[in-house]
Design a protein that fits this description.
The protein has 323 residues and is an alpha+beta fold. Among the domains are: 94-172; 177-312, Sandwich (Immunoglobulin-like). 19% of the residues lie in helices and 32% in strands. It is built from one helix and 18 strands. Strands 8, 9, 10, 12, 13 and 16 form a six-stranded antiparallel beta sheet that branches. Strands 11, 14, 15, 17 and 18 form a five-stranded antiparallel beta sheet that branches. A hairpin with a 5-residue loop joins strand 5 (137-144) and strand 6. The model is unreliable at 1-10, 16-23 and 33-37 (pLDDT under 50).
């Protein structure tokens, strides 16, 4: 077995543990141990073992600080990225509910405003096409008339690219009372003597006929109305309704636009009109003045609960066509 010797360099004696000074008054310096290993070819191989730990501590401290700086940089990069990624599902959810609000807005509008006939090419819902601000975003409505009959509402968050789209197909069943899609309001009654027009016959161009339909599953019972038209001249004199069993007069009087109170009850018995689910009834209105494209005639029928159904007879403003 090979042996090795451990010697110390005595050029610098060990310091005194009592005085803290080296022998002979030298500095308190501890010389590293020297390890003498036998060499294969003869002689000795000297290896010094460093005994000063201050340099190693500084090295580890530098490495630890660099590691902490690296970790801090990584976290400072990841945290903002995570915050940005969290915004997308939040904005997406907000955009969805904004789009839903647009659908509800369109349904309420259509329920109040009624519906245009297919021959007029101008639909009440078509006028809704556009963007409407709400909260921190907007909803954009796009209505495609029959045969598509589809409403699309797009919710968009301000300052974000996030948007959600809600589409409603077969839109009309979501309404209650609408203009019958297969007909168009028209002016002047048919020729005198036809059974479709009740007596007394009005002068030509002084009556309007239109069809309304209940597209919901519940009945609607009407008992009053209000009306307005441009100019303020003339009077509404009669209202007739026909539910398939003949004309029934509902109002006989002299109603002026803006008459207080604006809502007037039907005054001819029976003073209500029931429209069952999916039923279409005919409405005929007489005036004592000639209708023209400036009349902009709007009539609203009400239930006893105050629910109103508004119909703009000439929403296009291009004059009612002749019946």
């Amino acid at each position: 077995m090979k042996k090795f010797n451990l010697i110390m360099d005595k050029s610098h004696p060990f310091p005194s543990p009592l005085t803290g000074e080296g022998k002979g008054g030298g500095e308190n310096i501890l010389t590293p141990l020297t390890l003498i290993l036998p060499h294969k070819g003869g002689g000795n191989f000297l290896c010094c073992l460093p005994m000063n730990s201050k340099g190693i501590s500084v090295l580890f401290l530098v490495i630890a600080m660099m590691l902490m700086v690296t970790i801090g940089y990584v976290f400072s990069y990841l945290i903002p990225t995570k915050q940005k990624s969290v915004r997308f599902p939040i904005y997406s959810t907000q955009a969805f509910f904004i789009a839903q609000s647009g659908v509800e807005f369109a349904i309420r509008y259509a329920s109040d405003q009624g519906w245009r006939g297919t021959t007029d090419t101008i639909f009440d819902l078509t006028r809704l096409n556009g963007s409407y601000p709400i909260g921190n975003g907007t909803f954009t409505l796009t209505y495609s008339p029959p045969p598509a009959n589809t409403l699309t509402s797009t919710g968009q968050i301000t300052g974000s690219s996030e948007n959600r789209v809600v589409s409603v197909s077969n839109f009309t069943p979501f309404l209650r009372l609408i203009f019958n899609p297969g007909s168009t309001p028209c002016r002047t009654p048919p020729a005198a003597g036809l059974p479709t027009t009740p007596a007394p016959m009005p002068n030509r161009n002084r009556a309007a006929r239109f069809y309304i339909q209940n597209v919901r599953t519940t009945d609607v019972i009407l008992n009053s109305f209000s009306a307005s038209w441009a100019g303020g001249a003339g009077r509404l004199t009669r209202i007739y309704m026909n539910a398939g069993v003949g004309w029934v007069e509902k109002y006989d009087g002299s109603y002026a636009t803006g008459t207080p109170p604006p809502v007037v009850n039907f005054n001819v018995a029976p003073t209500t009109q029931t429209i069952i689910s999916n039923q279409v009834i005919t409405v005929l209105i007489y005036w004592n003045f000639n209708l023209n494209n400036d009349s902009n005639f709007i009539i609203t029928f009400y239930t006893a609960a105050g629910d109103g159904y508004t119909f703009n007879l000439d929403a296009a403003g291009d004059e009612l066509p002749t019946c």
